[in-house]
Amino acid sequence: MTDQFKKRFIAGSRPYLWITFAVLLLYAGTVSFDFTHLDDKQLIVDNFNFISNPANIIPAFQQKAFPNSAIPYYRPMLTLSLMLDAQLGGASPAIYHITNVVFHALASCLVFLFLITLGYKRVPSFVIAILFAVHPVLTQAVAWIPGRNDSLLAIFALASFIFFLRYLAKRRFSQYLCSMFFFALAIFTKESAVILIVLFLGYLVLMNRKLLFSREALFFLAGWAALAVFWFIMRQSALTYSFKTPLSGMVMALFKSLPATIQFIGKIFFPL
C-alpha cells in the first residue's frame, strides 16, 4: 500500500470523510423519493398528529410502533427518530430520507471505528467499512424510511460495544455508563439487540477470558440484566393484553427466525 494512498484515504479523520462521501454518492438520489405508503403510511402519514407533538416523547415508550394496527412491534427509538424529523421537516418525505442517509453514514463510520478499537489496522478496517457502506444488501435500510430501524440498531450496538472495549482497556466509569446507555437505546430500538449480551460474553471468552469471572464482568452483567428486565416490563405494558408475548414465546420466535439469518448471510456474499 503506497504512502500516498494512506495519506489521502487513511490518515487522521479522512476515512470518516471518505466513508461519508461514498454513502452520499450512492444514496443522495433517495432524498427525492416519496413515501411507499406501506409501513411508512402508518408510522408517519396516519400517525403525524402524534409524531409532530414533542410532548409525546414519553408516550412513545408506552405504546407499540403501529398504534392503529394489530402488529405487536415495540420500537420507541424508531418513533422518536420520526418525531425529530417531524419537527425538522414536517410531513415532507425528503427530511425522512435525508435522516436515513445520515444514519447509514454514521453506522458505516462506526464500523470503521469499531474495527480500529478491536485492534485491526486502518487499511483493512477502512476497506470493510466502505464495503458496508455500499453493499446492496443494506439498500432497504437506507432507501425505505422504516428500514432506518436497522441503521439505528447498528449505531447503538456498535457504540455500546466500542465503549465496552474502551472500558476494559481503561476502566473509566464514564465508559461503562456510555456502554450501558447505548445498550439501552439498542434494545429500545429492536428486541434482537439482546443478542449483544451473548456477543459481549463471547468476546470475553475468546479474547479476554481472564476477565470473564472478574468484578468488571459481573458489573456489566448486572447492568445488562437490569436494563433487559426494565425493557421487557416497558414492552409488555406498551402492548395490548392480547398481544403480550411471554419470554418463552420470544425465545421460540428467535429460534424459528434463525434460518432467515442464514439467508441474510448468504446475501452478503451473493446479493441477488
Salient structural properties:
mainly alpha, globular
Characterization of the model:
The protein contains 14 helices and no strands. The protein is an all-alpha fold. The radius of gyration is 20 Å and the shape is globular. The mean pLDDT is 88.
Task: Please provide a brief summary of the model.
Helix content is 69%, strand content 0%. The chain is mainly α.
Determine the mean pLDDT.
88
Strand segment count: 0
Strand content range: under 5%
Helix content: 55-70%
Please report the distance between the alpha carbons of the first and last residues. Answer: 32 Å
The residue ranges in which pLDDT falls below 50 over 5 or more consecutive positions are none
What Rg, in angstroms, do the CA atoms define?
20 Å
Oligomer: single chain
Q: Helical stretch count?
A: 14
Order of helices and strands: HHHHHHHHHHHHHH
The biggest sheet amounts to: none
Shape: globular
Helix and strand content put the structural class at mainly alpha
What layout of secondary structure does this protein have?
Elements: H1 3-10, H2 14-27, H3 39-45, H4 48-51, H5 76-89, H6 93-118, H7 122-134, H8 139-143, H9 148-170, H10 173-187, H11 195-207, H12 215-238, H13 247-256, H14 258-269
Helix pairs in contact: 2-6, 2-7, 5-6, 6-7, 6-9, 9-10, 10-12
